[in-house]
Amino acid sequence: MVSFVGAGPGAVDLITVRGRRLLEQADLIIYTGSLVNPELLQYAKENCEIYNSAEMTLGQVLEEIRRGHAQGKEIVRLHTGDPCLYGAVREQIDALEDLGIVCEVCPGVSSFCGAAASLKAEYTLPGLTQSVIITRAEGRTAVPERERLSLLASHGATMVLFLSAGLLQQVRAELLLGGYAPKTPCAIVYKATWKDEKIIRGTVERLPEMAAENGINKTALIVVGEFLGADYRHSRLYAPDFSTAYREAAP
Ligand code: SAH
Fold first, then answer.
1. Mind listing the pLDDT tens digit for each residue in 156-202?
2. What is the DSSP letter of 203?
3. Share of the chain above pLDDT 90, in %
């Protein structure tokens, strides 16, 4: 079996129970060395073959998986966070399935959830926003024109930017152009849940300076929105005058 496993955002004990079991059973592990915490490899069996995909091409990754699968090995492709976001997993799964190799996916804790936990924040606050926009600044990977940051920013929703910590001049310009006020709160969360995590809080108008002053240009998320501020309404769900399927409203 080939399992694509989400490693979680960084802290070793934030992999799922299932993900850890798959690591423990694996005969071959290919991990994303640029972002996955290498301490997770402590769960591998002593004779497990281990490869770092940061040094490999897609073709080489697929070839190792094909070879291992033909030898009847249990294989884990270990990706950072959850594989469903910016993981380049679809191209691997499709190519393997074309070869008749069936895969499964084990989810993980995405870094955007790890960052919220570190911030002790709730992205969806009543009275402010009920939506989270997950996106990225355009770098070497193109972003469709209809998803321009300024267009997405025009919703004023919570925004989480992956892969953008090195592009903050452009990010600030687009966020302001889209309509976020210059004083909208934002945070840079560097290496969320790792031992060397850093959180820098500030406002949209100072985003590039916040990163530069702290020497951050990668492995960070940018989170933006009023959810980081002090004003919000309480949820109706727990309001005493609100009936639910589980609880009658107080008279
Ligand atoms: N699949 C991953 C994202 C992979 S893209 C996930 O679900 O988290 C890589 C980008 O994710 C990095 O450039 C950075 O923006 C973000 N990232 C990954 N781990 C991070 C962490 N621990 N803290 C902050 N950002 C992180």
1. 999 999 999 999 999 999 999 999 999 999 999 999 999 999 999 99
2. E
3. 90
d(CA 16, CA 33) in angstroms, rounded, equals: 19
DSSP state of 80: S
Closest atom of ligand 1 to 189 CA is 24
Where residue 121 falls (left for φ over 0; alpha for ψ -120 to 50; beta otherwise) is beta
The total of other beta-carbon atoms located within 10 Å of residue 141's CB is 9
As given in the structure block, the two tokens for residue 234 are: 């309480």
- Give yes or no for residue 163 CB within 6 A of ligand 1: yes
Rounded distance between C-alpha atoms, residue 238 and residue 245, angstroms: 12
Q: In what order do the strands lie in the sheet with 185-190?
A: 132-136, 158-162, 220-224, 185-190, 198-203
Contact call for residues 48 and 231 (beta carbons, < 8 A): no
Tens digits of per-residue pLDDT, 10-58?
999 999 999 999 999 999 999 999 999 999 999 999 999 999 999 999 9
Task: Give the single-character DSSP code of 250.
Answer: P
Distance CA 187, CA 203 (A): 8
Cβ of 82 less than 6 Å from ligand 1: yes
Average pLDDT over every residue of 203-229: 97
